[in-house]
Amino acid sequence: MKIVIYALNPNSFDSANVKLNYFPSRKSQLNELVKKFPNDEFILFCQKPALLLADLTEEFNAKIIFTQAQKSREIANEICALKPDVAVAASFWQAPYDWLMVKDAVVAEQLKAAGIKTICNSVETGLTFFDKWETYQSLKAAGFKVSKAVHVVHELFWAERTHKESVISNPYKEAVLAQIKAMRYPVVIKDTVGLSSYQMEVCEDYGQASNYLQSKKNSSDRIIEEYVDGIQAGLEIHGTRGNYKVLPPMLFSVNKYGITSPKQSVKAGPVDRIQYKVDVLEETMLKLAEFYGFEGIVQVDLVFSKSEWYIIEVNPRMSGMTSMYSVYRNQSVLDTIINAADLFVDPSHPEVHNPNGGICDQKDFGRQNINSKSIQNPVVLNIKFPILTLKQMQDLYNCEYIKYVSQIHNTAAHQERERGYCEVILTADNKLQMDKNLTDLQNRFKEIIEEDFVKSARQLITNL
Q1: Which of 45, 290, 293, 318 is the most buried (most CB within 10 A)?
Q2: How far is C-alpha 79 from the geometric centre of its chain's CA atoms?
Q3: Residue 450 φ then ψ, to 5°
């Protein structure tokens, strides 16, 4: 079987100034995947930076293609020319817009039209969850638990500016402000199509919200959501229709405003306390997956509040959690992508395939990780470090309980927030051992570890 894993990026990428480093290397993961499935051919078809897929600085023994094409038809033609049996989208993310999965989906439609079996979320799904207001409306209409929200269309909110000759007063603005005034505070104001927590504002009362919306900071469409006070978490859903796997939720730390910041967040899991009603959450997530017909990997942001799970965002793509789940399941990220695509019938006999490309029992898939430093069903912790040298990253990775180290470093950025971070994933047999690992990490790397992150990590482990 010839399998093309593709990931596209319509945004510019500054490869001269943005450095990506991984331990273990993507090269080693790809080469091991090739060894694991000797009867199959794997091709990575990417546009840089190819997050979670490829090192940009190494030569690969297996085949990797960095395309220069931008139009979807040209990209689809290039993939078709490779004559794959199946194409698997490995959508990722990059600022300023979280729309890379939409590009992958457009190409997927053309591949399917050409008769190529393709695993990718649909264009409709991509567009629904690309726009946060569309997400809210769709989830609410489908009966899923979401926080109350109000939409602000920027052009209408400032109609008196662009139609001075005809607009004396703005009834749309009056109506929106009246809706917002009636909301329960605090509220969170978000760009409807922005990536992650960028341009997110928390307002404690109506005065703050009104002032923000009528200031220069309000430069695009916005969604205003009532803040759900609770425990923030996330999970991923893997698979295809009829064979979804809801991975156990992981807890997220929050910043001083009570929201999760990707570059500052600590994640730990899986949660196992009965109070979290994980069985109810799994049932809800399966309904979500079947309702939208997810294909591959989808990430969901959640809040557990007053014994109920709220859906905050849905991202039909890989996420910052994908590498964490890969470590949890003792497999590489590439293994995770292949598993989620439901390609093989029996993982213990990789030469045997489902002739229909179909459904398989993967509960034990990937237990023999390419990384020999593996633990069965561990407690996992994702913690951030500041920008490190390659030697410091290697020293961290040499710790027996650290399974994954990756770093994004923008050398041209002026602000600390934009420079990047180093992500480190630890494992332990249990929560007590994880606490001991954290203490050891503090002692061995006290010059580079940040105490606030350690404090957040310990709190999350206590709450698991």
Answers
A1: 318
A2: 25
A3: -105, 125
Question: How close are the terminal C-alpha atoms of the chain, in Å?
Answer: 41
Q: Which amino acid is at 440?
A: D
The single residue listed with the structure tokens 């047999």 is 429
How many other β-carbons are positioned within 10 Å of the β-carbon of residue 358? Answer: 14
For residue 186, give the nearest of 156, 212, 168 by alpha carbon: 212
Contact 153, 190 (CB under 8 A): no
Distance separating alpha carbons of residues 446 and 5, to the nearest angstrom? 40
C-alpha span between 134 and 130 (Å, rounded) = 8
Q: Tell me the residue type at 323.
A: S
CA 19 to each of CA 13, 252, 410, 449: distance values in angstroms, whole numbers, following the listed order: 11, 26, 6, 21
User: Using one digit for the tens of pLDDT, what is the confidence trace for 13-54?
Assistant: 887 788 899 999 988 888 888 888 889 999 999 999 988 888
Strand 222-226 versus strand 149-152 pairing type: antiparallel
In degrees and rounded to multiples of 5, residue 393 shows phi and psi of: -65, -45
Q: 201: closest CA among 225, 232, 178, 228?
A: 225
pLDDT at residue 123 greater than cutoff 70: yes
**Positive or negative CA dihedral for 272, 273, 279, 284?**
negative
Residue 353: C-alpha distances to residues 1, 281, 295, 349, 379 (Å): 9, 32, 19, 9, 32
Cα–Cα separations (whole angstroms), residue 150 to 177, 182, 220, 260: 10, 11, 14, 21
Closest CA to 121 of 293, 331, 285, 361: 293
